[in-house]
Amino acid sequence: MDAKTISLICAAIVVAVGSIGPALAEGRSVAAAMDAIARQPEAAGTISRTLFVGLAMIETMAIYCLVVALLLLFANPLVR
Q1: What is the C-alpha to C-alpha distance for residues 4 and 26, in angstroms, rounded to an integer?
Q2: Domains of the chain, first to last
Q3: Do residues 73 and 11 touch, judged by C-beta distance below 8 A?
Q4: Alpha-carbon distance 59 to 26, whole Å?
Q5: Whole-number Cα distances in Å, 61 to 14, 35, 57, 72
């Protein structure tokens, strides 16, 4: 295999594996927030705000994986 093929395979693996963790974490976070809102509806505003900040932090991992994959595809100095 040449360097271009290896770069493409690695980019696909990075995106595939890197999106599993955030997807699971976001699902658990939303489920916990919905449970908390169901228990205390008067705190829905605070819970929602905290949820969105937490989801933004969780999503950064997926964005970093996407950036690494794009670097492997388009800005890889090992592939000419």
Answers
A1: 33
A2: 3-74 (1.20.20.10)
A3: yes
A4: 8
A5: 11, 25, 8, 17
Three-point CA angle 53, 57, 63, nearest 5°: 130
User: Which residue shows structure tokens 């976001």?
Assistant: 26
Distance CA 57, CA 25 (A): 11
What gap in Å lies between CA 38 and CA 28, rounded to an integer?
15
DSSP 76: -
- pLDDT tens for each residue of 67-79: 999 998 898 877 7
Quick: pLDDT tens for 18-48. Answer: 999 999 999 999 999 999 999 999 999 999 9
> Is the distance from CB of 61 to CB of 19 less than 8 angstroms?
no
Q: What is the DSSP letter of 42?
A: G
